[in-house]
Amino acid sequence: MMRLSFREDLRRGLGCGCSKTAATCRELLAGEGHLWTFVRVEGVEPTNNDAERALRHGVIYRKLSGGTDSEAGSRFVERILSVVATCRQREINVLEYLTRCYQARLEGQVAPSLLPAATSTQAA
């Protein structure tokens, strides 16, 4: 019942006369099915707190450092922060992982994957 009411409110918002409100309502209607995943799928949280926490270190770094001076620097920071966040989520020691990556590079080998074992074997 609440979902139907929500959908009706969004449809009314499309014609409200305010372009920002109409655009927001359009976006929400387009992704409406995803908004209710937490109701249908057990274990899915109704918030994005985990994602926000994962991004927090990068946001603080950017604020304190003032960002980067080049496109290459931005790509490096994006990648290293992604590796750090993934290692933390998977309880992998970041320094050990980066050391293994560096050793693989020196030996002409492929860097160790951060993908879960099931995913990496499916991709192969």
3D architecture notes:
By secondary structure, the chain is an all-alpha fold. It has 8 helices and no strands. Helix 1 (2-14) packs across helix 2. The chain is elongated and about 60 Å long. 0% of the residues are buried.
Report the portion of residues in β strands: under 5%
User: What Rg do the Cα atoms give?
Assistant: 21 Å
DSSP summary: helix tally: 8
Mean pLDDT: 86
According to DSSP, the number of beta strands is: 0
Which sheet architecture does the biggest sheet show?
none
Helix-residue proportion: over 70%
The stretches of 5 or more residues where confidence is low (pLDDT under 50) are 119-124
> Termini, distance in Å?
45 Å
* Helix/strand class: mainly alpha
Q: How would you describe the shape?
A: elongated
Order of helices and strands: HHHHHHHH
